[in-house]
Amino acid sequence: MDSHILQLLQEGATSVSNLLLKMYKRMSLADDEMMLLIHLLSFQQEGNRFPTLTELEERMSMSSMRLIQSLQKLLKEDWIRIDEFIDPHTGLRHEQYNLTPLYKKLYQTWREQQPDPRMLETFQETAVTVDSEPVGLYSRFEQAFGRPLSPFELESIHMWTEQDGYEEELILTALREAATVGKLHIRYIDRILLEWQKQQITTVEQARLYSLNFRRQTQSKDFRQPL
């Protein structure tokens, strides 16, 4: 029994934004369309960014025709899109589902539900708009990562600004710090922000000074290590 439980746990879990689950009905997404999006998210988080129709059929109770129609509708109504990219190692061209349009619509719907106009102003800088390419904080991360952000990454950035209250410039400073040390991933950036919070660092200048001193101390320790 224990081995079976362990096997189940090792299958992992799919991270789905709670905001998306709360808002998809208001966004006029049908239940089966939402389930299809969840499966696309699941495949992406497993490392498969362009599952085949056969792979989707194996997980869903939709008929082949209904599945094709749902995908076509999501593409036509700009809930998802298909991007092409070239593998830098093989030079081969690949396709992948991009769910950024879904999150554009999610934030737009969220903003429309806010009664306090001051909250709308707070999101103006960092939210994703429907009529243009991603702007502000999200696009800076996408440019740095060289790819669209995953749902987990989008929600992490959202939580930094809305729940943790980090200033946008401080978040971008943490992004640059992660790039400097070659650890450009969302969890490492989160650890940087947590460390700065513990040190009561609230400004960009304080963060830069702390990082500079930290690197100097690290380099000094490495230099003193016996060969």
Low-confidence stretches: 117-135, 222-227
Q: How would you characterize the largest beta sheet?
A: 2 strands, antiparallel
Q: How do the strands line up in the largest sheet?
A: 1-2
Structural class: mainly alpha
Task: Give the number of DSSP strands.
Answer: 2
How much of the sequence lies in strands comes to: 5-15%
Integer average pLDDT:
79
N- and C-termini, Cα separation? 50 Å
Helix content: 55-70%
If helices are DSSP runs of H or I spanning 4 or more residues, what is the number of helices?
12
- Give the topology string: H per helix, E per strand: HHHHHEEHHHHHHH
Gyration radius over CA? 21 Å
Shape: globular
Structure, explained:
With 227 residues, this protein is mainly alpha-helical. 62% of the residues lie in helices and 5% in strands. It contains twelve helices and two strands; from the N terminus they run αααααββααααααα. A two-stranded antiparallel sheet has the order 1-2. Strand 1 (81-86) and strand 2 (93-98) form a beta hairpin. Helix 8 packs parallel to helix 10 (168-180). The longest helix has 21 residues, at 204-224. Residues 117-135 and 222-227 have low confidence and may be disordered.
